Amino acid sequence: MTALANMTVKKADGSTDVLWTGAVPSSGDKSPAVWENRTVGTAPAHFPKLSVTSTGFGPNGTIRKVSGVVRWPVVVEDANGRKTVTGYNQLSCVAQIDQNTETADISEVVKQGINLFDHADFVSQCIEGRAAT
């Protein structure tokens, strides 16, 4: 089982590292593990968060579902300098993996899937808010 740890990823510029701090470990199925990007915003409500939950289902619970959600607050500043969260941008990823599958095959679908979501074409579609035509 993966232990909660800090994660470092690249910012959108592709070269600057950003730390996502492990904030809350999962206490089991359906209980989220949470990471925070504390480099954004001036208050905890402004921190982008990654929440990961897992659960088993299917015959004998052999299918494991892992859901990751990144919620990035939209923060606006009023004329008096007060910052308020007015909404969220959100990115989700869900993996449903039958644990009766060969480990090498599970590794392939997960790694290729994540790499596809990291591909410039998919990223552009997300940024533009439109599927490729």
Q: Strand order of the main beta sheet, please?
A: 1-2-3-4-5-6
Apparent shape: globular
Number of helices: 2
Secondary-structure-based class equals: alpha+beta
Taken in chain order, the helices and strands follow as EEEEEEHH
Helix content: 10-25%
Task: Give the C-alpha Rg.
Answer: 17 Å
The low-pLDDT segments are none
| Number of E strands | 6
Please give the CATH architecture of the largest domain: 2-Layer Sandwich
How would you state the average pLDDT, rounded?
95
Strand % is 35-45%
Main β-sheet description: 6 strands, antiparallel
How many domains is the backbone divided into? 2
The CATH topology of the largest domain is given as: MS2 Viral Coat Protein
Annotated CATH homologous superfamily of the largest domain: MS2 Viral Coat Protein
Describe the overall structure.
The N and C termini lie far apart (41 Å). The protein is 18% helix and 42% strand. It folds into two domains: 7-99, MS2 Viral Coat Protein (2-Layer Sandwich), CATH 3.30.380.10; 101-133. It is globular, with a radius of gyration of 17 Å. A hairpin with a 6-residue loop joins strand 1 (7-10) and strand 2 (17-24). It has helices at 103-117, 120-128; strands at 7-10, 17-24, 33-36, 49-57, 63-77, 83-98. It is built from two helices and six strands; from the N terminus they run ββββββαα. It is of the alpha+beta class and 133 residues long. It has a six-stranded antiparallel sheet with strand order 1-2-3-4-5-6, with no helix packed on it.
